[in-house]
Design brief:
alpha+beta, 2 domains, three-stranded antiparallel beta sheet, Arc Repressor Mutant, subunit A, single chain, three-stranded mixed beta sheet
Length: 189
């Protein structure tokens, strides 16, 4: 086989998937291919030709995207069929609101999510239907707002010192409104 025949030019699947990957820090999933109406064999072929790296079951990454400090968080949101949102202690840490140091990545999925695969032992999965106003993006990663993260911490009985630190940091950085500030202080034990 000569050089020209051994080189595979990226085609329409590459272009369509690359566009999706730009919004997902370089990652694509089998669900992304299905949504485009493509066969899953596309991912296998692209991986075989060096156009994709296989990261985990059903999760691939374009090597053109550099690795970053938030890769594990993005992977956690994509794991449950792209339904995950970084939450709880992980969101507090991502927003840099307090000195919490989560041992696992906290990810919230909606009640309707039918999770068939066992999550990674590095994930702590929470089930809750989040309002659209509770979710935002940080560096492209779906994450709960600072207010929702603090409320999650209160519900989980996170140390009061950490809650106070998070409320103060969020207030100083303009991540919570005045009425939210009062509500959070009232909700904290």
């Amino acid at each position: 086989m000569d050089f020209l025949h051994s080189f595979v030019m990226p085609g329409r699947w590459y272009t369509a998937l690359f566009e999706i990957a730009t919004g997902q820090n370089g990652y694509i999933t089998t669900d992304d291919v299905r949504d485009l109406g493509g066969p899953l064999q596309v991912l296998v072929d692209m991986h075989r030709h060096g156009q994709l790296d296989r990261v985990a079951h059903g999760l691939y990454r374009f090597p053109a995207f550099p690795s970053g400090p938030f890769d594990e968080l993005m992977q956690a949101t994509l794991w449950p069929r792209r339904l995950g949102v970084i939450s709880h202690d992980s969101a507090l840490d991502l927003w840099d609101l307090c000195d919490v140091n989560p041992a696992r990545i906290h990810v919230t999925v909606p009640r309707a999510a039918r999770i068939r695969r066992v999550p990674s032992s590095t994930y702590e999965v929470h089930v809750r239907d989040l309002d659209a106003s509770d979710v935002t993006r940080f560096e492209g990663i779906p994450v709960v707002t600072a207010v929702r993260a603090i409320l999650d911490g209160i519900e989980r009985h996170l140390d009061r010192r950490l809650i106070d630190q998070a409320i103060d940091a969020a207030r100083r950085r303009g991540l919570i409104a005045r009425q939210e500030f009062a509500g959070l202080n009232a909700a904290a034990p």
